[in-house]
Design goal:
Shape: globular
Largest sheet: 5 strands, mixed, barrel
Strand content: 35-45%
Order of helices and strands: HEHEEEEEEEEHH
Number of helices: 4
Strand order of the largest sheet: 2-3-4-8-7
Helix content: 10-25%
C-alpha cells in the first residue's frame, strides 16, 4: 500500500470512529401538572411580569439526582429585556438581563433532553413575549418562570420551537392546540404596533 492510500485509509478510519462516538441525543417528554388558562386575560392576571425579550447565549442546566437517577431538572437561561408591558415586581428594567427557569434540561451524561410538560427551550438570539411569575432562590437571587409552562412563552419570530413541539416525543405529553388561541390573542395585543 502506498503512502497516499495509507493516509486515505487512516482518514476514513478517523471519520468512522468520530461518527460512531457522536450518538444523536434522545428527547423524552416528562408529564407534569401545570396551570392552564381559559383566556389571555386570565393569563395576564396570573402573571406578575409581561415582557418582550431576546434569548441570550448563557444557560446553565441544573439536574438533581438520587442514587444516579435523575429526580428533577431545569435550565437557567438568560434573556435581555427589550420591552416591559407589566411589572408588578419592580425587578425588571429595559436592557437588563434576567434569569428564566426553563422546563427543559440536557443530561450530558446520558445524552438526553428532558422536556417537562412538553416544553422546548427558547432559542439563542430569538425574540419572545413572556408571561412570568417571579420567584427567589434560597440565596436571594430572583428568577422567573413562564406562566403555565408553555402558555407563557410565545415566539415572536419564526424559529424551531413550534416545529419541535409538534415533532418530538414531548408533543405527546401536552396538547398545544388548546394554547394557540391564547398565543394568537397575545400576539395580536402585544405586537399590534409592528404591523
Amino acid at each position: 500500500m502506498n503512502k497516499k492510500n495509507t493516509i486515505l485509509l487512516l482518514l476514513l478510519l478517523t471519520v468512522l470512529l468520530v461518527s460512531c462516538g457522536n450518538k444523536t441525543a434522545e428527547h423524552y417528554g416528562v408529564d407534569a401538572k401545570t396551570v392552564a388558562f381559559e383566556s389571555l386575560e386570565e393569563m395576564e392576571d396570573f402573571s406578575g411580569v409581561i415582557i418582550r425579550v431576546v434569548r441570550e447565549e448563557e444557560q446553565q442546566p441544573v439536574i438533581t439526582t438520587n442514587k444516579g437517577a435523575m429526580v428533577s431538572g431545569y435550565t437557567l437561561s438568560q434573556v435581555k429585556v427589550t420591552e416591559i408591558y407589566k411589572d408588578e415586581t419592580d425587578t425588571v428594567g429595559i436592557g437588563n438581563t434576567i434569569t428564566i427557569l426553563e422546563n427543559e434540561v440536557f443530561d450530558s451524561e446520558d445524552n438526553i433532553y428532558y422536556h417537562i410538560a412538553g416544553y422546548n427551550m427558547m432559542e439563542e438570539g430569538k425574540e419572545y413575549l413572556l408571561f412570568l411569575k417571579a420567584n427567589t432562590f434560597q440565596n436571594g437571587e430572583v428568577y422567573y418562570v413562564a406562566a403555565g409552562v408553555n402558555y407563557g412563552t410565545i415566539s415572536l419570530e419564526t424559529d424551531n420551537r413550534m416545529a419541535l413541539r409538534l415533532n418530538r416525543t414531548s408533543a405527546k405529553v401536552c396538547d398545544f392546540s388548546e394554547m394557540q388561541p391564547i398565543w394568537d390573542a397575545a400576539l395580536q395585543k402585544y405586537t399590534v404596533d409592528e404591523k
